[in-house]
Amino acid sequence: MSSKTDLVIKFLHVISWIIFIALCYQTGALMFNYAFMQFRVFPPENQYLLLDLTELFSQSEGYFGLLFGLAIGISGLKAYSFYLITLICQYLNLHKPFSLEMSKLITKISYYILLVGILGAIAMGVTEELTKQGYPVENAYEYWDDYSAFLMMAAVVFVIAQVFKKGLEIQSENELTV
């Protein structure tokens, strides 16, 4: 493995950790905002609201909980997906890249990214329906407006997982014939 490749992998590992930490922060902030709004710990004007749905909260606590739950779920799944990506960067062996662990890890990532896309599509549909009914949910779109990109990314990562699975089969056959 060349030093440039090693440097790029280390750089990607650091970047994936930074993104993972940022998504964990976002998920935690959403959970605290939800708890503070739900239990009325602080008035909304004294909070740093990552997702400001105070008007929706006053109109319908059920829809408020649904949208916040979807935002927390999507953010949490994104964070966990990036944690799995950090594991790929950590355990990647370019001398023998096709391993059972890598294949399982990439397949797992594709499933979690697919879940992000599906939850995003559901959240987008719910948000559009609430907008039609006149509920104030305009600032919620930013949490799931990229769902189609996650659906496409899930398909690409799943194909890569299948390539890894086939590469593992070929690698094990080659080891048996040598």
TrEMBL record:
The chain crosses the membrane at residues 12-36, 63-88, 109-127, 147-164. It comes from the Bacteria. The keyword Disulfide bond does not apply. Pfam families: DUF2975. Keywords: Membrane, Transmembrane, Transmembrane helix. Coiled coil: none annotated. This is DUF2975 domain-containing protein. It comes from Algoriphagus taiwanensis.
